[in-house]
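Q: TRAP transporter small permease, please. Structure only.
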Amino acid sequence: MGKIIKLLTKGLHSVAQIILLVMMLLITFDVLGRWLFNHPIKGTVDVTEIALCMIVFLSIGYAHLQKVHITIDFVVDKLSKKVQLIFDIVINILIAAVMGIITYSLWQNADRLMRSGTVSSDLNLPIYIFSILAAIGTIIFSLIAILFAIENSRKILKSTKVKDENFRVNSTFSQQAVNSNES
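A: Structure for TRAP transporter small permease:
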């Protein structure tokens, strides 16, 4: 399941990169058209507004997957590794919850936009489609956060299990040493 989510995240990021390239070319040709021919490209503002939103929402999960979000960790870095993992679990659960709320809001907004027939100003593009795409981006972000929380929980459980086994082994050796000293 984790591999599928990570693959989807990378796919959405690739789509965002293509959107960025198209937006860059469109703006360049629009500026050239204004300056050279006094004729801008119709719909550039519509496409730019929508493209910027899509770039953000389709790439946000990838940014979290790569752990490139801004973090303020000058306090957390001084704590033990286990406490750092606990903080990371809590933060990822909070991220998933907040993104879940945003996803719900985006779906509600998409439904409202679809029912009202809201379209963009120049090209008459239906706006609800882009709200749905943004919701998909937030779902992926939530899933990545949940995956990180699960991975860190496993790390804590694994380290606790190793410590328990070491304690049992050391206790066994200590008991054997006591028994051999008594003999």
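A: Brief note, in case it's useful. Helices lie at 2-37, 44-65, 81-116, 128-182.
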